[in-house]
Write a structure and sequence with these properties.
With 473 residues, the protein is of the alpha+beta class. It has a domain at 152-377: Transposase Inhibitor Protein From Tn5, Chain A, domain 1, CATH 3.90.350. 37% of the residues lie in helices and 20% in strands. It is built from 16 helices and 20 strands. It has helices spanning 35-45, 47-52, 68-80, 89-92, 96-101, 125-133, 151-164, 229-243, 260-270, 282-287, 289-302, 353-361, 365-377, 388-411, 423-431, 455-466, and strands at residues 4-5, 10-15, 18-22, 29-30, 55-57, 147-149, 172-179, 182-183, 192-194, 199-202, 205-209, 212-217, 248-253, 273-277, 306-314, 324-333, 336-337, 340-344, 435-439, 444-448.
Length: 473
């Protein structure tokens, strides 16, 4: 049986004796009914509202149909729900649920000024594109692009949200640093070829504290991955210390951040500790050679990996200004010898060698999961505009979507099977719910799918969110 397709009805293979047919006549239905959980997380944290305050709006108030908060909210909710491109919003602008999430008082768009816009409550791709492309020097005299992102305010915003999500200062925090490649395909500003990654890319620098994002800075790939880390550490740690003067801070990163200027900054200016990967060299391997021989012999006898840890003082011949504590791991695997090294400012009496490597340093691998959430789950790599500034803003939109998703995870998902779920799992299992949207004068009502398989989890998450008093009404 051949399928038939026209604008009225779609016919599919039947199940005797029944025909199987479909038609786009269900009324106002959304596939993102679970997005309401995101809005509740926003109401209890004010994340989007605070982010919107980082923009200066030079538009004439009497001509505005979309506030900055509505535009920013539309973009961030769209990313969280899986719509990565601006072109998606030419269809999404019809969606009354997304309009509800963004705070539109008229989610059907019935009262829009121009007749061509009626029925479209939200902004289209052109309006959102102007938001992203507004230059830093725009003013009220600019013709089209008049909403200016404040870089310094946005940078402070991420640390502010981190601080707000702690009821009392912790005794100790670990700040992870890492950079990753953000592949580019056009002739964007700042385009360079990376020999390490073997393609043209940007090199964004991230800073996290556990699941909390502290910084996301778009860099170019023609410089060292650690470039800019000193300034970011000064800024972030300074802001944290303003609120928590007594907190102990440890900086953690791989060997790409084992730089004299970073270690000296921690030791001399910031009064923080560090534990960093140290690239091996012949001198380090020679120091560890006795342990390497011992683990090799043990492996040959047992056939199982064996590890030994060595603690010693070390200084490079030229680049380091002083001796520092190094922990060496001697290990032998089926592929052969596998020596590894870390350098740390934490004294041995506070942290033994094995714990320093296995518990403290290796835990930095979790940050890679956070970056994957950014790149793969929230589209931080959609940096396809021509200008570096607008691509940085796109990275910040993605970062803010992550911050909101993480707030939902922290406040709503605790105690559920999804407590540790990553962004794409949260989206698939919680947000993608079919729902019929009914709007009247007094309420917006969603009839969620009766066959939704995670009803109990959804209800538990809603209950968790209701326990938190909204931060901003």
């Amino acid at each position: 049986m051949n399928t038939e397709c026209n604008e009225h009805q779609l016919s599919f293979q039947g199940i005797n004796p029944r025909r199987v047919e479909a038609k786009f006549d269900g009324g106002t239905i959304t596939s993102d009914g679970g997005g309401l959980l995101l809005r509740e997380a926003e109401k209890r944290t004010g994340i989007i509202k605070q982010f919107a305050h980082c923009f200066t709006d030079y538009r004439s108030p009497e001509l505005i149909e979309h506030t900055v908060e509505e535009l920013v909210g539309q973009r961030i909710y769209g990313l969280a729900l899986g719509y990565e491109d601006l072109s998606d919003h030419d269809e999404l602008r019809h969606d009354p649920l997304l309009a509800t999430l963004a705070g539109k008082k008229d989610p059907m768009g019935a009262s829009r000024v121009h007749e061509r816009d009626r029925g479209k409550a939200l902004a289209g791709k052109s309006t959102l594109n102007r938001l992203e492309l507004t230059p830093a020097d725009a003013s009220a005299n600019s013709r089209y692009k008049k909403i200016v992102a404040g870089d310094e305010q946005i940078e402070r915003f991420y640390v502010d949200v981190f601080l707000q999500q702690h009821r009392k200062p912790p005794k100790r925090i670990i700040i992870d640093l890492d950079a990753t490649d953000d592949r580019i395909h056009g002739d964007q500003e700042g385009r360079h070829f990376s020999g390490y990654y073997d393609h043209y890319c940007y090199l964004p620098l991230y800073m996290f504290c556990g699941h909390h994002l502290l910084s996301a800075t778009l860099g170019t790939s023609d410089v060292d991955a650690a470039k800019g880390a000193v300034d970011e550490l000064k800024r972030v740690i300074g802001q944290i210390r303003e609120a928590w003067p007594e907190v102990r801070i440890i900086i953690r990163g791989d060997s790409g951040f084992c730089r004299e200027e970073i270690m000296a900054l921690c030791e001399d200016a910031l009064d923080v500790d560090y534990i960093l990967g140290l690239q091996r060299n012949s001198r380090l391997v020679e120091i560890l050679q006795k342990d390497l021989d011992e683990v090799r012999q043990a492996y040959e006898v047992s056939g199982r990996a064996v590890r030994l840890y060595m603690d010693f003082q070390y200084r490079t011949k030229k680049s380091w200004s002083r001796e520092r504590r190094v922990v060496g791991k001697a290990e032998h695997l089926s592929k052969g010898s596998n020596p590894r090294f870390v350098v740390t400012s934490i004294p041995a009496e506070q942290l033994d060698a094995r714990t320093a490597y296995e518990k403290e340093y290796c835990a930095r691998g979790d940050m890679e999961n956070r970056i994957k959430e950014q790149q793969l789950g929230l589209f931080a790599d959609r940096t396809s505009t021509h200008w570096l500034r607008s691509n940085q803003l796109r990275l910040w939109f993605s970062a803010t979507a992550y911050v909101l998703m993480n707030a939902l995870r922290s406040l709503g998902l605790k105690g559920t099977a999804l407590a540790k779920a990553q962004c794409w799992t949260i989206r698939e299992k919680l947000f993608k719910i079919g729902a019929c949207v009914k709007i009247s004068v007094r309420r917006i009502y969603l009839s969620l799918s009766s066959s939704y398989p995670y009803k109990e989890t959804f209800t538990a998450i809603h209950r968790n969110l209701m326990e938190h008093v909204p931060r901003i009404e």
